Amino acid sequence: MIDICKKLLNRVKIWLQSLSFRTGVIVLLCCIPFYILSFAQMLLPISAAAKGVLWTILFGMAKTCQYGGLTILGVEGFNRLKKFFKRK
Q1: In 1-88, alpha helices (H)
Q2: How many whole angstroms separate alpha carbon 9 and alpha carbon 17?
């Protein structure tokens, strides 16, 4: 079972790395609204249990977008982004 999971994760990683730089940047930027929503939902007048569930889902989506975007970008793409922001 563990071997199957490792193979599946490796295939997903290879697929993500085959996506373009632009896709990686878009996925990485998608984590920002999820982070904002994960904390802004605390202001809603709902039960604490519902807030906990919403926070878990939204924060999980933010982390998924963050790590997915970084996987798509890879080391070269990440260095390319750093150079872009250092120039400005």
Answers
A1: 2-17, 21-40, 48-87
A2: 12
Two structure tokens written together for 46: 């709902």
The 10s digit of each residue's pLDDT in 14-60 is 888 888 889 989 999 999 999 999 999 999 999 999 999 999 999 99
Longest CA pairwise span in the chain (Å): 48
Say how far residue 17 (Cα) sits from the centre of its chain.
Answer: 14
How far is Cα 84 from Cα 88, in angstroms, rounded to an integer? Answer: 7
CA distance 60 to 9: 18
pTM of the prediction? 0.77
Residue 17 confidence (pLDDT): 83
